Amino acid sequence: MVPPSEVRARRTSEARQVADRLPGAETCAGSLVRAPGTCAAATHRSKGSRFRIRVDVPSDDVGRVNEVRHALQSHYRAESADAEGEIRGLAYNGRWTFLVAFLVVGLVILVNEAIVTWFEGRFITVLSESLIIVAWVTLWGPAETLLFSHFPARRARDVAGALASAAVTLDATEADRTPPRTS
């Protein structure tokens, strides 16, 4: 079993922002995220591994673990639901754009056959082959949307779901000497 990845924050207000940075390896280096091994271990974690969120809080706030857990779970469940909606939207748009592109391919092929039937010559042959290439190129974007664009949204959904079920612990620390910045 893979040990849980750990997200650390210095205060409860930081916990969401720190955990949100976990999926991106480029933001792991030098941040508050602590994962076993390297940041890539957190980014490319196995599907069954779990997260643990640890927040350093003043000793007065240690008893608020249920409140913090509920806030983080609500946040990541909402993110998971948003990603699920994005996946459904991509599938819906992918099917319709693919259908429209396939109709365009059919029309271009019909026009191509009409041109070849009515006209002759080398230019017509080049035009005919170019139209066929253009027809198939129109399928690239919709096919990419349908086949591949859902992977990042699925990854975001899975990570948000794992973070929603993460174990949350609050660690008591001494009072923060620097007051939080308010702009």
Q: Helix and strand string, N-terminal first?
A: EHEHEHHHHE
What structural class should be given to the helix and strand makeup? alpha/beta
Biggest β-sheet strands, sense, barrel: 4 strands, mixed
Shape: rod-shaped
Mean pLDDT: 76
β-strand percent reads: 5-15%
| Order of neighbouring strands in the sheet with most strands | 2-1-3-4
Work out the number of β strands.
4
Q: Return Rg in Å.
A: 26 Å
The separation of the N and C termini measures 45 Å
Put simply, the count of helices is 6
Low-pLDDT ranges: 23-44
Percent of residues in helices comes to 55-70%
Explain this structure.
The protein has six helices and four strands. It has helices at residues 12-20, 39-43, 65-118, 122-137, 140-147, 150-164; strands spanning 5-9, 33-34, 51-58, 167-173. The protein has a four-stranded mixed beta sheet. The protein starts with a strand and ends in a 10-residue tail after the last strand. The relative contact order is 0.19. Mean pLDDT is 76; it is low at 23-44.
Short description:
The chain has 183 residues and is an alpha/beta fold.
Walk me through the topology.
Elements: E1 5-9, H1 12-20, E2 33-34, H2 39-43, E3 51-58, H3 65-118, H4 122-137, H5 140-147, H6 150-164, E4 167-173
Parallel strand pairs: 1-3, 3-4
Antiparallel strand pairs: 1-2
Helix pairs in contact: 3-4, 3-5, 3-6
